[in-house]
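Researcher: Please translate sequence to structure tokens.
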Amino acid sequence: MDSASLPTITLDHMEAAAQRIKGRVRRTPCLRARFIRQPIHPNLMLKLECLQVTGSFKARGANNAVLSLDDAAVKRGIITASSGNHGVATAYAGYASQTKTVIYLPGRVGSAKTEQLARWGAEVVIEGDVWDDANAAALARAERDGLTYIHPFADPAVITGQSTVALEMLKQSPDIDVILVGIGGGGLISGIALAAKAIKPEIQIIGVEPEGAPTLKTAVDAGRLTELDDITTQALSLAPRASAAVNLDIIQRHVDGIKLVTDDAMRDAARWLFLEMGIAAELSGAAALAALQSGQVTVPDDACVAAVVCGAGGDGVN
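Model: Translation complete:
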């Protein structure tokens, strides 16, 4: 896909998405980290998408995608592949739209996500070891059974739904100077970067990936889409082998840098969130904060920095 064929997502599209999904998602807190024993930064904000419906920001993109479909596409049933959070969000969107939902998961996904999917009534299929394996099988099933496929990070409607995180943040805290965002396939940071830069062009957007899955950093450094040979992180929500053209294009144009963190740094950040703030975040959900806590990102004390806590879970504090 060349740049001329990439979709245009405007602030009007993003505001329309916020209106479209408002009956299905929560307006999550953007909380100042105060009254704590071990501060990380004097002006730290936490956008608590871990408190979102289904436990992650993914509810925004999945519902915007489903609500943007015509009735026939919804009636056929929806399908996706996920490392967990997008699958649960899509299952919720399917449940809310009263349609059949099929979720393909890689075998490394834990039983807690599988149980969440079952509670929303989705059909769950385990395929392969990583997201890319499950995705290939989901695409084949969609073609075979006529189901409507929803991509977890490269669908423009999903990206537009995720952009509503930044719309909320900058209404709640207009003084934010830097936003730190965990990166998996790039859907969340694509949406946040588009919205934040449209509202406040001088704001800095910094992405954070695991050292064991530097998908977008590798692609940005190479100037083209790349595919990782191996995934070694336990933060599976941030670990596709490859991203997509639309995400790479947005990140190249609107993201100010990508930093890498270790799994141990994510665990330390998750423990901090639990012990200091009473917030249970999965490893992936703590990635953005880990970059600041570990010193991979430095922000002047007089600037306001916000970390998106993008997903709930207990694997970071066990």
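Researcher: Any highlights?
Model: The mean pLDDT is 95.
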